[in-house]
């Protein structure tokens, strides 16, 4: 009958980890007084093993005879005094006692059927042999007298299942119980009507409790809320307070204090975590030792001595664990922490042992502060094998100036994204970047201004008056740095001042070769000023449908695109004429204008905002923006893909600030060229960065300007404003005009004129804080100078 | 073009629609009237513009929409009206008057919330409103599942709800969820059927099939399979999908069990025929119901007598084998209550495009005279309170406490009444019903004497419960009327709530046990 299975023999003889398979999941284990024998019980198993040097030896199988539900044990307990006596609680509500000295096969001595639902726990009195307590799902605790073999007393009310019940090891009359609703109660054994103390210990069921073996006022409880709590019973004022709380990773099914170690407690969990953990209750987040032998949830723990314990699990294994084989999570944790602030400062925390080598590491962060040392010792008087923890914290200040964070913050603060005409924004931002030494960004802004802004003369500040035209023309050769080898003096009349400005700007900014290349051939091919002039006036003619000009246009198409947008000054005198005859472009027409277009211009024409740089347009009857920007479009259309690429480049480089700022400033010019996902990502990361630097206003502004549905929805999150009743201060959650609170049920401020609740706008006097419906107040104050309530305040409606 | 519904005494909703381009509703509580004018401006002289004149006054909805409707009718416009009478085909409308007239404050507040959230007060909510405390927990849970935090995208959630309820042929929920699905930006193509949905969702169909009909067949392999390979599921997503499936498949039982009428904007929910004089204003069930109530109150007496006996009775001196046999007997009897009939489902709308293997249905857990291959699920070994809750809380946080509340409420709900009797302790009866439902799914409670099931529940009740639980699409008025003839309607609704919750708990337990097995076996 007896069968021995051993495995995992490790360490020295006498104290080894070993286990045995018991054929069925174990719900509970218990050991006899001297821990030489252990009983395991479960739904399909009820056996006694004797604990040998290196193995468990099965000595008795109690699951014999007719197998009934009484063998389906949820708990088992060995009598603390009598080695032959056992008690079990069954899932069907029966409490059984077993006498091992019985000679026939079935050792069942008594069966109590008083509980109507499953029994969760049974327990013997530590010193009075005949007292057996049980706690059941039906909400009652019963006291069975083993002398009379009857239920002598019933404790507890009906509707709160009892999860655990334990006698106090010191005081002979007290016991404690935990319940399904998370409560813990202590009872006096002699009083069946009322508990001594009661407290809500856990959220959800409190699965188990254990009295401290030495300190009579300490109880540990554990529950579904993943906590182990240590309670101190205060006998003086009849209260109980939490002393320690341990945070586990899963709901805790059993707790058991480690004998002779004041602060140590063993726990096993209900789900997920299959280990048996030993906690130092002063260290709440990391178990002191972990035993990982079980393959399924461990269900019961019995200590043999402070260094050896036995556990059973749902995987049907009974193990003896010794501390030498435990895992110590704390030791494998590297006691080092590093954190970096957004301003580039680094904080580093090390334990003393690992400090020397890490200090050798030279970084470009200079250590500007003295290392701080922290030291933690165990409380005096506690004998511990562990040395005190000691660690130091080093703060390295970043001394590099002009780092990313500084630039980022000042850019974010000084960039202007809206509120001024496009060219001015670009110029401003370019200047800002220039000042901060970000030359590339500055150039980019300048380029953007050139590419997208309207004719520079459109800006009153830069557009030279007509009278100055001549001088401008003269200035052209000097100003334009672009080599113009075959430059004909004639040509300048048309290309005029605006052109020269732009040319110089372009070359100043060392625009990529592309622009320069397109510029140069124009001058060479352009040859005669007449051709250019024709082209210009041709615009007017072309609209009228003259074929001849089309020819010219076609000829020069390849190179003239740059030219096309620089409307010369003379144009102003003729503007009305031009635009008078001009109709908004039909799709065919616009097609005609840009034979080598990359993308359809119609969309751009439609979306081009009127507000930018068009101040001088004076013909309201026609479609000025389209007429004016048509040439401009051709340029921007050509460059749009490049600009899009450029923004992507900035974003990929990590400079989402530039990408987003440009995106906002460019607005509709570029928006549909960049995928919405990219835009969202840029916006989100820029906003994220801004929040990290606590630039809330700017981040909110960016959100507002984003014009992207997902991004702007940020500003609509958590926008609830909570209001409270002015009578009882209860929160108004449903209506703003009536208090729902049971004791109050009043209307909040009513209209001072009509005394009815105000459900829309409430106008308020800042002086006397009376008010009401906006119309009523308006009417009232037209006739009366004072407040409608009669408070005497001279309200004023403005 | 437009639909008008006046459901209940006080509530009146108006739906105007050119595909939702115009949509406004008014309620009796005019303060709460939410006026929504969405979409394009109405062109001048269009009929809608004229309508607007009727319904609006200075931009406000007129307080008397019924008047407006009458105006329209006089103009010769066909105004559709609700087909069914009240929210439920089984329960007379008068039962719901308390909540709708505002006499039941809590229910009224909940109804207002529902209306504000979904722009309608659906019939299902109205029926549940008979138990406001439960309704509150129910709405909170459902709202969290569909709109709260969770790993699944919103449109996925609604589609899973569609897939789960379609298995029970419950077009009522399917239509509601289809609307929600589209409102969440779901791809309308998906509604054409399972072949148009992403692989990931399609792979779920098999699990849903099992969960809805025979949850005990779920093994860890089913889950393991979904967690691997291309378009695999994350475990937390899967757990949420499981919760959604169990919730909605049980809800389908409630819809059929209470005979919830289709909404006015659903197919079969409205008619333009003017109410003829022959139409009886009170529902048929009401008539014969009241007739028999006097004579049959003896039934309640008998039941109460049994309850008393059971309470006083000391523990019967019977062996455990006898108890086991009793459980088996109950299980066997379950089998005898065969699927009521092979009548085609009442609901004729075609939902087969959402299904795989439409013939897969509930099969009795224990076959007559056969030894079941699948062992009985022992409630003590894997209970909701201990293991289920914690596991669910780990993979789908926050929902577990809500479900816990909901289970507890449904289980412990009592007004201490039974029909006209008052001060009755119904706990034994409730426990019998709960455990009986669990036994339909092969879950056994060790500490329960299944003899009580037989003594407390008559055959009609068992038939009804089994039908609602396992073949909800086959519930008929006669099922509903044949059990507990002299009990209140609200008590019958409570039975439905218990079916809903016990069934959900059973399927959840099976699937969560499989989730646990992923790590322990």
Could you tell me the CATH topology label of the domain at 99-257 in chain B: AhpD-like
User: What does the radius of gyration of chain A come to?
Assistant: 44 Å
Q: How many structural units, i.e. domains of chain A?
A: 5
**Tally of contiguous helical segments of chain A:** 20
CATH architecture of the domain at 99-257 in chain B: Up-down Bundle
End-to-end Cα distance of chain A, whole Å, is: 101 Å
Structural class by helix and strand composition of chain A:
alpha+beta
Sheet having the most strands of chain A:
4 strands, antiparallel
Largest sheet of chain B: 2 strands, antiparallel
Oligomeric state, counting identical vs distinct chains: heterodimer
What is the beta-strand fraction of chain A?
Answer: 15-25%
> Can you say what the CATH homologous superfamily of the domain at 99-257 in chain B is?
AhpD-like
Pair with the biggest interface = A-B, 39 and 27 residues
Distance between the termini of chain B: 59 Å
**Unreliable segments of 5+ consecutive residues of chain A:** 1-13, 355-370, 376-385, 456-630
Q: Choose one word for the global shape of chain A.
A: elongated
Strand order of the largest sheet of chain B: 1-2
Protein name (chain A): GATOR2 complex protein WDR24
Region (Disordered) (chain A): 353-377, 456-510
WD repeats (chain A): 112-154, 199-241
InterPro entries (chain A): WD40/YVTN_repeat-like_dom_sf (IPR015943), WD40_repeat_dom_sf (IPR036322), WD40_rpt (IPR001680), WDR24 (IPR037590), WDR59_RTC1-like_RING_Znf (IPR049566)
């Amino acid at each position: 009958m007896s069968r021995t299975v051993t495995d995992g023999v490790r360490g020295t003889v006498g104290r080894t980890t070993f286990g045995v398979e018991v054929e069925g999941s174990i719900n509970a284990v218990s050991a006899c007084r001297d821990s030489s024998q252990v009983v395991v019980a479960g739904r399909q198993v009820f056996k006694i093993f004797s604990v040998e040097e290196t193995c468990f030896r099965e000595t008795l199988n109690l699951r014999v005879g007719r197998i009934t539900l009484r063998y389906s044990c949820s708990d088992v307990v060995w009598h603390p005094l009598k080695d032959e006596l056992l008690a079990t609680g069954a899932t069907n509500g029966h409490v059984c006692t077993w006498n091992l000295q019985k000679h026939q096969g079935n050792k069942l001595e008594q069966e109590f059927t008083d509980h109507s639902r499953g029994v969760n726990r049974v327990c013997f009195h530590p010193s009075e042999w005949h007292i057996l307590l049980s706690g059941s799902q039906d909400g009652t605790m019963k006291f069975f007298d083993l002398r009379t073999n009857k239920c002598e007393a019933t404790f507890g009310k009906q509707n709160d299942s009892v999860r655990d019940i334990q006698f106090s090891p010191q005081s002979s009359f007290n016991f404690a119980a935990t319940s399904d609703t998370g409560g813990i109660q202590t009872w006096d054994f002699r009083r069946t009507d009322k508990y001594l103390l009661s407290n809500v210990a856990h959220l959800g069921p409190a699965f188990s409790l254990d009295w401290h073996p030495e300190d009579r006022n300490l109880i540990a409880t554990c529950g579904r809320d993943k906590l182990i709590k240590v309670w101190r019973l205060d006998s003086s004022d009849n209260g109980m307070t939490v002393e320690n709380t341990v945070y586990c990773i899963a709901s805790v099914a059993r707790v058991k204090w480690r004998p002779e170690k004041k602060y140590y407690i063993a726990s096993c969990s209900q789900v997920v975590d299959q280990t048996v953990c030993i906690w130092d209750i002063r260290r709440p987040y990391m178990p002191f030792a972990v035993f990982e032998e079980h393959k399924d949830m461990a269900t019961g723990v019995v200590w043999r001595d402070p260094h050896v314990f036995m556990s059973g699990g749902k995987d049907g294994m009974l193990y003896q664990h010794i501390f030498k084989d435990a895992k110590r999570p704390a030791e494998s944790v590297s006691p080092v922490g590093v954190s970096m602030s957004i301003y580039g400062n680094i904080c580093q925390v090390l334990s003393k042992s690992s400090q020397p080598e890490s200090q050798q590491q030279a970084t470009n962060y200079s250590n500007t502060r003295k290392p701080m040392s922290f030291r933690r010792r165990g409380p005096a008087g506690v004998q511990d094998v562990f040395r005190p923890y000691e660690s130091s914290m080093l703060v390295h200040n970043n001394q590099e100036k002009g780092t990313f964070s500084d630039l980022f913050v000042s850019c974010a603060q000084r960039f202007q994204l809206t509120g001024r005409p496009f060219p001015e924004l670009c110029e401003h931002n370019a200047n800002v970047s220039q000042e901060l030494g970000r030359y590339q960004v500055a150039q980019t802004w300048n380029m953007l201004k050139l590419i997208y802004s309207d004719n520079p003369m459109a800006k009153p500040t830069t557009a030279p008056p007509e009278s100055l035209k001549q001088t401008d023309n003269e200035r052209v050769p000097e100003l334009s740095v672009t080599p113009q080898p075959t430059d004909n003096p004639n040509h300048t009349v048309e290309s005029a001042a605006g052109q020269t400005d732009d040319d110089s700007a372009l070359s100043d900014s060392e625009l990529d070769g592309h622009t320069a290349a397109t510029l140069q051939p124009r001058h060479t091919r352009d040859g005669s000023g007449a051709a250019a002039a024709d082209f210009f006036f041709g615009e007017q003619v072309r609209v009228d449908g003259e074929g001849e000009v089309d020819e010219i246009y076609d000829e020069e198409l390849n190179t003239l695109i740059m030219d096309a947008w620089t409307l010369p000054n003379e144009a102003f005198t003729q503007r009305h004429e031009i635009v008078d005859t001009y109709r908004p472009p039909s799709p065919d027409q616009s097609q005609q204008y840009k034979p080598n277009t990359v993308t359809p211009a119609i969309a751009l024409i439609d979306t081009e905002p009127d507000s930018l740089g068009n101040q001088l347009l004076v013909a309201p009857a026609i479609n000025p923006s389209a007429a004016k920007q048509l040439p401009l479009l051709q340029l921007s259309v050509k460059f749009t893909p490049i600009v899009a690429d450029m923004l992507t480049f900035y974003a990929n480089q990590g400079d989402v600030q530039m990408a987003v700022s440009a995106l906002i400033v460019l607005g509709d010019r570029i928006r549909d060229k960049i995928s919405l996902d990219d835009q969202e990502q840029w916006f989100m990361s820029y906003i994220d960065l801004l929040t990290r630097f606590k630039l809330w206003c700017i981040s909110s502004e960016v959100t507002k300007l984003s014009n992207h549905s997902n991004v702007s929805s940020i500003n609509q999150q958590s926008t609830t404003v909570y209001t409270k009743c002015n009578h009882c201060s209860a929160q108004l959650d449903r209506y703003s005009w009536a208090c729902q609170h049971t004791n109050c049920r009043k209307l909040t401020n009513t209209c001072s004129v009509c005394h009815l609740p105000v459900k829309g706008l409430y106008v308020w006097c800042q002086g006397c804080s009376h008010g009401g419906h906006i119309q009523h107040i308006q009417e009232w104050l037209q006739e009366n100078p004072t407040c409608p309530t009669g408070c005497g305040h001279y309200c004023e409606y403005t | 073009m437009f639909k008008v519904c006046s459901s209940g005494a006080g509530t009146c909703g108006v739906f105007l629609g050119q595909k939702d381009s115009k949509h406004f509703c008014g309620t009796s509580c005019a303060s709460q009237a939410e006026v929504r004018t969405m979409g394009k401006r109405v062109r001048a002289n269009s009929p809608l513009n004229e309508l607007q004149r009727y319904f609006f006054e200075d931009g406000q909805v007129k307080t008397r929409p019924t008047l407006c409707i009458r105006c329209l009718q006089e103009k010769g416009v066909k105004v559709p009206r609700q087909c069914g009478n009240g929210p439920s085909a089984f329960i007379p409308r008068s039962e719901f008057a308390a909540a709708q007239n505002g006499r039941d404050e809590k229910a009224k507040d909940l109804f207002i919330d529902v209306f504000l959230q979904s722009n309608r007060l659906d019939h299902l909510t109205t029926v549940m409103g008979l138990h406001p405390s439960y309704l509150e927990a129910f709405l909170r849970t459902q709202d969290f599942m569909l709109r709260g935090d969770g790993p699944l995208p919103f449109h996925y959630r609604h589609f899973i709800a569609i897939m789960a309820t379609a298995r029970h042929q419950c077009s009522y929920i399917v239509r509601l969820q289809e609307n929600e699905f589209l409102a969440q930006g779901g791809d309308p193509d998906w509604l054409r059927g399972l072949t148009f949905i992403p692989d990931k969702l399609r792979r779920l169909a098999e699990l849903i099939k099992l969960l809805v009909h025979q949850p005990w067949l779920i093994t860890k392999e089913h889950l393991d399979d979904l967690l691997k390979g291309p378009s695999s599921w994350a475990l937390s997503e899967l757990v949420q999908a499981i919760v959604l499936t169990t919730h909605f498949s049980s809800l389908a039982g409630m819809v059929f069990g209470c005979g919830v009428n289709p909404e006015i904007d659903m197919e079969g929910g409205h008619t333009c025929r003017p109410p003829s004089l022959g139409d009886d204003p009170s529902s048929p069930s009401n008539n014969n119901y009241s007739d028999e109530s006097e004579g049959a109150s003896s039934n309640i007496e008998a039941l109460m007598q049994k309850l008393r006996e059971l309470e006083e009775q000391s523990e019967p001196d019977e062996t455990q084998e006898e108890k086991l046999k009793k459980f088996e007997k109950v299980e066997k009897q379950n089998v005898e209550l065969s699927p009521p009939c092979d009548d085609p489902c009442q609901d004729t709308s075609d939902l087969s495009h959402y299904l795989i293997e439409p013939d897969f249905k509930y099969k009795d857990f224990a076959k007559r005279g056969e030894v079941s291959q699948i062992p009985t699920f022992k409630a003590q070994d894997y209970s909701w309170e201990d293991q289920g809750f914690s596991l669910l809380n780990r993979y789908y946080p926050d929902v577990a406490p809500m479900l816990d509340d909901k289970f507890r409420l449904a289980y412990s709900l009592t007004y201490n009444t039974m029909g006209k009797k008052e001060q009755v302790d119904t706990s034994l009866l409730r426990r019998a019903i709960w455990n009986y439902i669990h036994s339909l799914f092969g879950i056994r409670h060790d500490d329960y004497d299944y003899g009580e099931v037989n003594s407390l529940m008559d055959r009609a009740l068992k038939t009804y419960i089994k039908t609602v639980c396992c073949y909800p699409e086959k519930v008929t008025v006669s099922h509903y009327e044949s059990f507990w003839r002299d009990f209140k309607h609200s008590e019958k609704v409570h039975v439905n709530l218990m079916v809903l919750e016990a069934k959900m708990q059973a399927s959840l337990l099976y699937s969560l046990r499989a989730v646990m097995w992923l790590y322990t076996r």
